[in-house]
């Protein structure tokens, strides 16, 4: 995946991480919230896998509606510039191509598994390790996963054995992750322990959106016991 497609993909990833972070800032019951989120993601995933044409038609209809909006506005307030219509169509085309570029091959075949696994991963982490798991779980997904992917794609040269992770990506993801954890009040050694668990989970987990929150939560729980 090229850097442009990755940027689009990580923008969606950050939006998902914001949803996962809601219980950190809003008074809701995390177990119920994450169960509902997992249910919604599971329903979306099921539709995508079993009835993919529904989502393809929906995407097509959305872009068609956006084109119709421009046509309607042009009829109401004619600007007399054909180039604006061409530029608008080109923008819509670019957005659609960027979304397609952000999709991985296995997602085109089997659906957006990461969306479901992120919700499931945080739900499992919370139920096993309790409230202390939320912050490191979300930080792992929102910070480490994003920065390690971006830096690794742009500058990665030295790959770890048996994985696509790179040393450059690990450094790029670890630095901001440590900074956020330290700012949140974790002791340096605890922040490093959590980050180390996240590194291993992201590099060697079958599905990092599932593995990262559980690994981060487990490390935070272990740090609290030491």
Which descriptors apply to this entry?
226 residues; globular; mainly alpha; 83% helix; single chain
Report what the structure shows.
Helix 1 (3-25) packs antiparallel against helix 7 (134-155) and helix 6 (113-129) packs parallel to helix 10. This protein starts with a helix and ends with a helix. The longest helix has 25 residues, at 52-76. 83% of the residues lie in helices and 0% in strands. By secondary structure, it is mainly α. It has 2 domains: 3-50 and 112-225, no CATH class; 55-108.
For the secondary structure, the number of strands is: 0
Low-confidence stretches: 106-111
Number of helices: 10
Class computed from helices, strands and strand pairing: mainly alpha
Radius of gyration: 20 Å
Which percent band covers the strand fraction? under 5%
Distance between the termini: 41 Å
* Shape annotation: globular
Helix content: over 70%
Tell me about the largest β-sheet.
Answer: none
Quick check: average pLDDT? 83
Number of domains: 2
Sketch the topology as an H/E string, one letter per element.
HHHHHHHHHH
Break the fold down into its secondary structure elements and pairings.
Layout: H1 3-25, H2 30-50, H3 52-76, H4 82-102, H5 105-110, H6 113-129, H7 134-155, H8 167-183, H9 188-204, H10 208-225
Quick structural overview:
The protein is mainly α. It contains 10 helices and no strands.
